[in-house]
Design brief:
The complex is a heterodimer of chains A (604) and B (252). Chain A is α/β, with parallel strands linked by helices and 604 residues long. Among the domains of chain A are: 136 residues, Succinate dehydrogenase/fumarate reductase flavoprotein, catalytic domain (Flavocytochrome C3, Chain A, domain 1, Alpha-Beta Complex); 120 residues, Fumarate reductase/succinate dehydrogenase flavoprotein-like, C-terminal domain (Methane Monooxygenase Hydroxylase, Chain G, domain 1, Up-down Bundle). In chain A, strand 1, helix 1 and strand 2 form a beta-alpha-beta unit. Chain B folds into two domains: 99 residues, Ubiquitin-like (UB roll); 139 residues, Orthogonal Bundle (Fumarate Reductase Iron-sulfur Protein, Chain B, domain 2). Chain B has a five-stranded mixed beta sheet. In chain B, strands 6-7 form a two-stranded antiparallel ribbon. The chains are: A alpha/beta (604), B alpha+beta (252).
Chain lengths: 604, 252
């Protein structure tokens, strides 16, 4: 059997984006030994890509804002499938988490009186997103990183976890490998926090990097934890679509927040054509009012471009399907038009949206201050994830915690832009705090099963021994194409059932992929291992999508195009049955606390 | 469909050589696309480090036709495809494998720099007030994506290997961001002069030239830091004057 290094921590955090870093910092602050696993180098996780901002009711720009408004916005955006307690904690605690970043060195853009500036974003009633131009995620991860490296956290860079280890029903550690030499590592831990982010690589068109293969979702599922809301995959309405090599790269909602509009090939502003009932009272009914809203007129209502992402994405798909799309099968997003309204518009755009300017100029030869961008939906975010307790973030497996995108509950059927960065901070902190507490209270000796480790190591090395079989890259491409085609933005029963058949075939192929070369920094081998996680989450998404026979939030069924009141009463839970097969069950929504119910009603 | 040839370094610390790979190219492709295509079609075990593929994470640094660049932001249409495109790992860091280098030195350097230390809050609710114009400069430095291309091109590190005596442009920018942060009250000037080795920089501006974020590294970060060090340690009048004043920030 292969040799491996062993590490011993109180709390092991898997993942080093916003949630993982915040969890590790908090756990360390509670005086326990913390190890943190980064799949890539420290500071490169997907948080770095977040553009628009962090949603927090600081009420620096509009004093009418407060946690209650943020809470109701989040619940409405999630079509009321959210865990209400998480939505409450999130709205209440986000402002403190943002201020804490400032105390750790973040430099957010400022208001005229020197406070943190906030911007408009889809589904948020008031300007709420603390931001730094359009590189807020970079500011956030760098702040956490630069603070975190002085907190005594042991960081394992370019390291991937293959399996969680359990004993007596409780999580006791994890087994993985480091990239450089391909050597195994055994991590003993009294508590484990999963903060591994999303699943975007299950789809062909995505804003996510290679890392987002649902590792945490899959690790937790196989360790016996329940997953929830897996049918809700967010397709961000605006990704780049041309040239082909940039397809999927994100175009921030901030473009629309700053006044950008969506046009079809006839140059018609199509978003006014359909306004959902839930948002009719909050949406502008003419273009001038929409423009005024983006410029901070407090009496104006938001333009329809700033409706929730699920709705905007579907409107774009409708325009394309009905033949009104742009030349490369998207629509136009135009911010350059504001030159009719603002003197010095070009400079203003460059200042407010520097990365977007740079990105289009460099990769698509388009000057966004002069011409419209071509955009289309891109797989962006997983609302579903590991089912956790709202207050402690512990999963259904003792000692196993989850936070951020890998956890479910806060966002329900659809996430509002800006609510992800705040989610990472609020629940990253909570997960770290309660994991440390769990570790202190459950400090017994840890027994690792040597045979289990040996079996894992053997399984992981099998692809090297095969002399035939597909390349792991090819199987991954085929899976991504299939998921995009059959389990994408618009779904129906027939295609979903076909997807299940295809998954079975792909599962057989993925179990027989062949890897060449040796264990040192071998991207082919890594892909072969990640592929197993992608298979698990793809199955979970498909099964849940079959089971939810209605259209709600990000889940759209053309065979059930309306919302169904009964289906609005439950979340779908995915779990591993006693027979080892994946199962789905309906779990009734927990009763909303009366005072919160009242707040929701008052703000409808 | 047109094809192009890519000459990619294959090997590890013990040695290696350039290998030629031909692959199809299409409109808008960047070097990283070509490398991925080669990896999927011809060399599954080709080592390449990347993440965002949008110029935001700074993972895919390499030397393309001899110039330090991000592979994800280098378009094939900007290269001469009649000749093989030469892709090799950064030279200033030890090679791990193929295009991947060991950049861990950078993480160790950062840890040694004194961390951010804010003045007491300005308002009773624990918050501070800062003017946008006072943070513009620092926001420029904080655009850094830590791709380490500036470290790669810096002759002090690349040619003279003074990694033990000089922190390199990336971390001079980092120190500048801390020193010029309106809230910070820590003092790093002595470290700059001694351990950080700011004197090694002779302002050739190579770092500024390669920065994919267009940070004006030399003019805006390094030269002002050099001036502060000179003021502190080499200006006798100011030194005397300083004895009558408190440490760093004037009262606000």
């Amino acid at each position: 059997m292969s040799s491996f290094d062993t590490y011993d921590y109180d709390v092991l955090v898997i993942g080093a984006g916003g949630a993982g870093l915040r969890a590790a910092i908090e756990a360390a602050a509670h005086g326990v030994a913390v190890g943190m696993i980064c799949k890539s180098l420290l500071g490169k996780a997907h948080t770095v890509m977040a553009e628009g901002g962090i949603a927090a009711a600081l009420s620096n720009v509009d004093e009418r804002d407060n946690w209650k408004v943020h809470f109701t916005d989040t619940m409405r955006g999630g079509q009321y499938l959210n865990n209400w307690r998480m939505a409450e904690l999130h709205a209440k605690e986000a402002p403190d988490r943002v201020r804490e970043l400032e105390a750790w060195g973040s430099l957010f853009d400022r208001t005229k009186d020197g406070r943190i500036l906030q911007r408009n974003f889809g589904g948020h009633k008031y300007p709420r997103l603390a931001h730094v131009g359009d590189r807020t995620g970079l500011e956030m991860i760098r702040t956490l990183q630069d603070h975190g490296i002085h907190q005594g956290i042991a960081v394992h860079m370019e390291c991937t976890i293959i399996s969680l280890l359990k004993n007596d029903g409780r999580v006791i550690g994890a087994f993985g490998y480091e990239r450089e030499k391909g050597q195994f590592k055994l991590f003993k831990a009294k508590a484990v926090v999963i903060a591994t982010g999303g699943i975007g690589r299950a789809f062909n068109i995505t804003s996510n990097s290679w890392e987002y293969t649902g590792d945490g979702h899959s690790l937790a599922y196989h360790a016996g934890a329940e997953l929830m809301d897996m049918e809700f995959v967010q397709f961000h309405p605006t990704g780049m679509i041309w040239p082909p090599s940039v397809r999927g790269i994100l175009v921030t909602e901030g473009v629309r927040g700053e006044g950008g509009i969506l046009l079809n090939r006839e140059k018609k502003r199509f978003m006014f054509d359909e306004i959902p009932e839930l948002y009719r009272n909050q949406t502008a009914d003419n273009e001038e009012e929409g423009w005024k809203y983006t410029q901070g007129d407090r009496a104006a209502r938001r333009p329809p471009e700033l409706l929730t992402r699920d709705h905007v994405a579907r409107c774009i798909v409708r325009e394309i399907k009905e033949g009104r799309g742009s030349p490369h099968n998207g629509v136009y997003l135009d911010i350059s038009w504001i030159k009719q309204k603002l003197p010095g518009a070009a400079e203003h755009i460059k200042k407010k949206l520097p990365s977007m300017y740079h990105q289009f100029k460099k990769l698509a030869d388009i000057d966004i201050t002069k011409e419209a961008m071509e955009v289309g939906p891109t797989t962006h975010y997983m609302m579903g994830g590991i089912r956790v307790d709202a207050d402690t973030q512990m999963s259904t497996v003792p000692g196993l915690f989850a936070a951020g995108e890998a956890a479910a509950g806060l966002h329900g059927a659809n996430r509002l832009g800006g609510n992800s960065l705040s989610d990472l901070l609020v629940f990253g902190k909570r997960a770290g705090e309660f994991a440390a507490k769990f570790a202190k209270e459950n400090g017994q000796a840890i027994n690792i099963d040597e045979n289990e480790i040996a079996a894992l190591a053997k399984m992981v090395l099998e692809p090297f021994e095969r002399t035939e079989g597909d390349s792991p890259f090819q199987v991954q491409y085929d899976l991504q194409d299939m998921m995009q085609d059959l389990v994408g933005i618009v779904r129906n029963e027939e295609e979903l059932l076909k997807a299940m058949e295809e998954l079975e075939k792909l599962s057989k192929r993925s179990g027989k992929v062949r890897v060449v070369g040796n264990r040192e920094y071998n991207n082919g081998w890594h892909t072969a291992l990640d592929l197993q996680n992608l298979m698990t989450v793809s199955e979970a998404i498909t099964r849940a999508a079959i089971e939810r026979k209605e259209s709600r939030g990000a889940h759209f069924r053309e065979d059930y195009p309306e919302k169904n009141e009964k289906s609005g009463q439950f979340n779908l839970i995915i779990y591993k049955g006693a027979d080892g097969q994946m199962k789905v069950r309906q779990e009734p929504l927990p009763e909303v606390r009366p005072d919160l119910k009242q707040i929701i009603e008052e703000m409808k | 469909m047109a094809t192009a040839t890519f000459q990619i370094w294959r090997g590890d610390a013990s040695g290696g050589k350039f290998e030629n790979y031909s692959t199809e190219i299409s409109e808008g492709m960047v070097v990283l696309d070509a490398v991925h295509q080669v990896q999927a079609q011809h060399a599954n075990d080709l080592a390449v480090r990347w993440n965002c593929k949008a110029g935001k994470c700074g993972s895919c640094s390499a030397e393309i036709n001899g110039l330090p660049k991000l592979m994800c932001m280098t378009r094939l249409s900007d290269l001469n495809l009649n000749e093989p495109v030469v892709i090799q790992p950064m030279k200033a860091f030890p090679l791990i494998k193929d295009l991947v280098t060991d950049v861990s030195w950078n993480f160790m350097v950062k840890k040694k720099i004194n961390k951010f230390k804010p003045r007491p809050p300005d308002a009773e609710d624990g918050t501070w007030r800062m003017d946008q114009q006072d943070i513009d400069r620092v926001q420029e430095f904080r655009k850094c994506i830590e791709c380490f291309l500036c470290q790669d091109v810096c002759h002090v590190l690349r040619e003279h290997h003074l990694h033990n005596e000089f922190i390199g442009p990336r971390f001079l920018v980092y120190v500048a961001a801390l020193e010029m942060h309106p809230l910070d009250i820590e003092d790093r000037l002595k470290d700059l002069k001694t351990g950080d080795g700011i004197g090694y920089c002779n302002i050739t501006k190579c770092c500024t030239t390669v920065c994919p974020e267009d940070i004006t590294i030399t003019d805006n970060a390094i030269i002002p830091l050099k001036e502060r060090v000179a003021d502190r340690f080499y200006d006798p009048l100011k030194k005397l004057f300083r004895n009558f004043r408190s440490k760093k920030n004037p009262p606000h």
